[in-house]
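Deliverable D4.2, example record:
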Amino acid sequence: MHRNLRIRFGALAFLATMLALHAPVVAQTTDAPKPGRFDFGKMWTFEYPPAEYFTSTYGFDASPAWFEKARLAALRIPGCSASFVSSDGLVVTNHHCARGSIVAVTRDGEHLLDDGFYAPTLEDERPIPGYRADQLIAVEDVTDEVYAAVDAAPAEGRGAARAAAIAAVESRLKQAHEGSDEVLVQVVPLYNGGRYSAYVFRRFRDVRLVAAAELDMGFFGGDPDNFTYPRYALDFAFYRVYDADGKPYHPTTWFTWGNGVDEGDPVFVIGNPGPTNRLQTVAQLEYQRDVLVPVRKAYYETRLQVMRDAYAADPVTGEQLDLRNRAFGLSNSLKAYTGRLAALQDPEILDLKRAAEAELEAAIRNDPELQSRYGNLLADIAGLQVRKRALAGPAGAFYALASGSNGSRTLRRAMMAADLLNAQTQGASSASLDEARARLRDVEDHPAAMEEDLLRLRFEDLQRYLGADDPLVVAALEGRSPEGAATSLLSRSVLATQAQTERALNGPGIPTDDPAVVLARALGPRVAGFQDSDRVVSDRERELAADLGRVRFEVYGTAVAPDATSSPRITDGVVKSYEYNGTLAPTHTTFFGVYDRYYGHDGNVEWQLPKRWLPVPAGLDLSTPLNFISTADTYGGNSGSPAVTKDLALVGLNFDRNIEGLSRDFIYLPERGRNIMVDVRAIREALADVYHADRIVDEISQGAPVEGRR
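Output generated by the structure prediction step:
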């Protein structure tokens, strides 16, 4: 048997064995933390399906055919997940995953985000420009192929050898599928590069909008309810996939529309969770706790306040600049980083991670072959964190420096202008100079007060993270406070506004001694030096992470799931309530709660209802379950993921997780977190009695479209 596959018994049995064999090393007292069986999560891949575990735990035959149907019925869409729900290519996902598509198909005079959309016939379904949906049609473990090239290369050439091997795999598999539908091949590193899998996707490019709820329903509760539960969001939208002939695509399999689940029922969620950090070492997590996460939390916190202040000062301009939605994006990130920091500062979580690492270290130490290859691995990774901490100052000072959305537009122009002036000096072509000037002209203004605040915040970042005596800080502030320096620079620079920049470009050009340009030129070498140092450390860390992944797989096999990688996964959980705020969260909420929130928050924009929902539409059953929760292991990227039963009936759409579940970036603790789903019963009820979308109701009930019905 191949060494990498020699352990195939359950993780719990393995951990128990390790504790028994190495108790003096692993657990000094009976009170020492013991890692849970699924601390590293349950984001299972389809090439390593947990068939035996599913079968024994949930009492059904989790056969290869079952996993194949689950895989083929699920889809990956940009940033989210989705699934087929009829034989004619009807697809369901979250409303928040479809917002960009809804905007893209909106015609003059329409307000589809606010009003919702329903296509009464196939002909009314609207093509979405540049959109796509991917279906995973084949998976191949290509680890041996990749590492045959990597292990034969010298240390300094491993990266290039890996890239060449991956390119060869992708070319081989593309040729193997030549002549079929359009295919996309992606080689995905699992276990941080300890394993490699090649994913072959069928890519659909003709995707059309069929129906969508109103924004106020899809995002009911807005930012305040984000990452919370109980929830009351009708977060759904429908697409249809079309074939190359412009006809509805006929998938070989799809999820039937289910009738809901009750407390204690199992659910299986298929989707594409974004990258997690569960396989990182304790030293890496401590670096995140002390440096990386606090820096990003502070950044989002300060920029969010500036954006909210700007919107409050001028809501009309704020809507034109989309400040409310941009503020929500910042708030979403802030809540996520706040939850991550709380997890990293939780002694119980770090103790569990230390205990798991001690077991891995013991396994390495007690295997001579592993010890010879990986004996210094954890120490080497810890040493890199020391080097990263030495770069913490510039990492904080320059974080998101070039952001066009949340950063100073003057500073952005200044960096572009400095590049333009350098290009002029170096004799760049007229065409490239014209392109650079055009990009500079296109940088739009923030409101004046917002711009000044954002520039002040950047000066504060430089001072906080580099120190007041740093030469760059001294030059940037010119003896002033951060606020005074921002005011002074904006009053003296031709790059302070788009109009002034335009006049300078049309006239004498950007002065080389413009204070913003001088600042940009002072920043340039420092930023470049930091990026070079950071790149060296990051490259080395990636190689060590791959080695860590290899040894983890050799010790645990597939009993430990890999970190998420935005690639297709299936996870399991049960519908289960939990204690919160001194009470008990129900497993399900209903439409009754929507109206309670609306009337209870009278006049608050976050809990407004669209016109068609007031008064209560005739026939709408307010007791219909709307949202529900489970212990399934989901993460960002799982939005729109189908939640299905053992019979592969669709019962929900994953759209969020609670604040307690934000620790899932680092560890999966089902007793703490819950994923939150839209109940399919609410979608069907709303389609029938509120939107009168009979054609869609018939299709999800019968599996085939009924054309012309309204």
